Amino acid sequence: NAVYSYMAVAALYDHDYAGAVAAYDNIDELEKDMVGNYMKANYLRAEQLIANGSWRNAAANLKAAAYYSDKTSFFNQLSRYWLAESYYRNDQYQQARSLFTELYNAAALDGQTEGGLIPYDLAYCYFKEGNYEQAARWFNQYLQGRNLTRKYDALLRVADCSFARKDYVAAAKAYETAAAADAKLEDIYPYYQAGLAYGLHVSGSRHLFPLPPLPGLRAAALYGAAAAGGRKPVVRELLFAAPVPCPGSEAAGAEAKTPQ
Questions:
Q1: Which of 44, 45, 141, 180 has its CA 20 to 30 A from that of 169?
Q2: How far apart are CA 183 and CA 123, in angstroms?
């Protein structure tokens, strides 16, 4: 165990988080001073995998990162948040929704960027599952928050939910609201959808919604916002305490370095 512990700490200092996790996994029972390093190694390895688009592989590391920590701790909640996101990215919408709901009910990550995005994440889970009523509810819940980095996308999805439910009048109005929030006026999608919604609402007096004469509108952007989905950035950087050196090692008496 001592040999693997030395190997793991050395790997952490070298930013070889996969090597650190592998070394710790060879230890039958982690000692108390190893657990913190093991959690950090798994989280930081998940960051690397996510940065490379390997969401499926990152899930195992995020589970391990959260396993040993208190559910009320920031580290645990952040690990579970990105675990839920990994489920979403792997089309496991039910698992993602369950975990996002758990975090929302616990008021997890309050005041953090990720915490503010939980209603938005829940909305997308319902949206992908085809439950447009619940999706609209959660997108609107997100829109009542602060620091709305996904406001435009959420407004579009609210309109899409009405459109999918064939409530074309509500959809057209919601697309107009979204279009008004597009400060750059570069996305033709809400104008196109509003016109389509009005056209489908054959019982009303207004059937066409003309596009405004805006030279900045790009036809290529028609489905750009919808396809991108406005999903959030990858993983916010965290600063961790330095790994605990093994007793008797040279690093034990030296100034610790923080893994990046």
A1: 141
A2: 24
Give, as one character, the DSSP assignment of residue 76.
Answer: H
Please report which residue ranges of 151-200 form alpha helices under DSSP H: 151-164, 168-181, 189-200
The first and second tokens of residue 238, run together, are 């965290």
Query: Are the C-beta atoms of 154 and 143 separated by less than 8 Å?
Result: yes
For residue 38, which amino acid is it? Y
pLDDT in tens, 204-224: 444 444 444 443 443 333 333
* Alpha-carbon gap, residue 148 to 136, rounded angstroms: 16
The model's pTM is 0.78
DSSP 234: S
Contact 248, 33 (CB under 8 A): no
Closest of 134, 142, 138, 132 to residue 167, by C-alpha: 132
Residue 38 makes CB contacts below 8 A (sequence gap 6+) with 8, 20, 21, 24, 30, 64, 68
- Alpha-carbon distances of 251 from 9, 21, 37, rounded to whole Å: 10, 19, 15
